[in-house]
Request: fold
Amino acid sequence: MATLKEEKNKRVKKTDKEKNQMLELFRQMYLIRQFELACGENYTKGNIRGFLHLYIGQEATAVGSISCLEEEDYIITHYRDHGHAIARGLDVNRSMAELFGKKTGLSKGKGGSMHLFDSAKKFMGGHAIVGGQFPVATGLALACQYKKTGGLVVCYFGDGSTNQGTYHETLNLASVWNLPILFILENNKYGMGSAIDRVRAGGEDFYTGVDTYDIPAAQVNGMDVLAVKEATEIAVKKVRQTGGPFYLECKTFRFVGHSLADGQKYRKSNEITEWEKQDPLVKFPKWIKSAGIATDKDLEKIKSEVNKTVEKSVEFAETSEEPSKSELDDDIYKK
Amino acid sequence: MREAIKKGLEEALDTDPNVLIMGEDIGEYGGAYAVTDGFLSKFGPERIKDTPISEATFIGTGIGAAAAGLRPVIELMSISFSLVGFDQIVNMAANIRYMSGGQIDVPMVIRAPTGAGVQLAATHSQSFETWLAEVPGIFCVCPSNPKDALGLLRSSIKNNNPVIFAEPALLYGLKGDVPDEYYEIPLGSASISQEGNDISLVSYGAGMKILHETSEILAKENISCEIIDLRSLSPIDYDTIGESVKKTNRLVAVDTARKNGGIMAEVVANVQESFNDWLDGPIVRIGADDVPWPYNKNLEAEAYPSSEKISEKILKTLI
Reply:
């Protein structure tokens, strides 16, 4: 898989379309970062309650991979779901309002941070039981196959979920039934506070173990948005060609705790500082400038627009109505 | 009974291309209880899907398929095996609609043999429809005869929510009339299985046979029993139960599942709350003994409620 440096050397001259794509990748990653920072701030203020899991550090994985999908493709993910939601283009105001538990939220304030949904965008949730999304992803893929929609399912999961039975069951079934699923592992080295080497037999690389299920697999630097994009393009193409599954492991890292309640006592010394050297929000804009795609001024303009978007989303969430008490038993059953 | 369920499934497969069936050994083998025998050759492997022994995953596969517009019917070999997939049924199927603010529907039926009485011992004889009936977001039904089985199955497959369709393992061979003309039985409706004046007896599924036997014993004492078939454990039709209690002023609730925490505890508490003024005596509740189901035939029968035990308790308590 190409690294940023190779990519730079390979493509010196870019078309306007390509330049705009690069800037869009940056805009999305920056939006996720600012959205998450705003979430953290509002959690501290007490505007957001429950559990809050931030995606800070992992932005390149969601943005790079989702940029390769089509409208008919489904996305299903884990509880650290804000990044995927934003990369899929879910409404930022309604996402923030959901975190604030407001009526204008994506799920009318009934789901919260861990359960973001937008069926119109085929964004099938944020799921908060670790590994619970695997079987549902399989069913979405079965429907794609059965109805011959040409669509596929991207199922995101963390390294922690790979010790659940549903992980192994689902890889098996997706292979046996040849279902169009792209499994994307976000290997951030920790399942909450448990480092991989403390809970997993077989080392820190997962993609090699997928041979058992006869599923093609690859590994990519999940901190490098272009590498993720390129790897996903290949993976998506393969899934569409074969109709069957593909497994992509993204090596990534969260710069913050598991949730806002996490003191990170389990971290190895200097680990965060080392990984921060790969911060996609530092490296990618630097590359954009060196490749002549945009200037500091261009990037500042994007940042300023995103900052406004995030500020507005907080304002929207703050000023939105609470759900009325009469809505308590709405949405349980479909008539 | 088996034929009625089979007919309901065949009808759905014939009329709705979005219906498909998934489960362990439902295709080539023909189903553990032979309900889907012959389906594979008639409907093909795309719609009759043999699954690996991975309950959590094939139940969840049903959820995803339903969320994407299909109408899957999942067969479990035993409702005891639902425990392996409980996370998918409870956390996922039941909650997704609510958590998404009503954006995602899960029109899925989970069929599962339930109950004791066939010497399958502790892990294959339980009645977890009583647990699942507690969960908001799913319907839960259990027929006691072929006619109801077909009517309830038609409604279950057409319903736009997850439905637990519990089939008493004891009753697959039960014979009974099934009308030729098309009918459906709405979920959430109990039925009066026999009219009477002196005592209301309520149960469901395999308990109904015991209630009719009890009624025959009590008839010899000139006691006339009204018999109510709950049919639906979620929601429960308190109107039908209440009307009967208003008439007879006495209620006896019988569960073939364990008594402790059973669905009849819920029935009794609600009747007490809502219809207390019409009761002329204490409500009698009888269930299976609170023990793991034993394999031995005599021990199993000892744990199971019987018409003798029930009529004896009624005569002692209410008369």
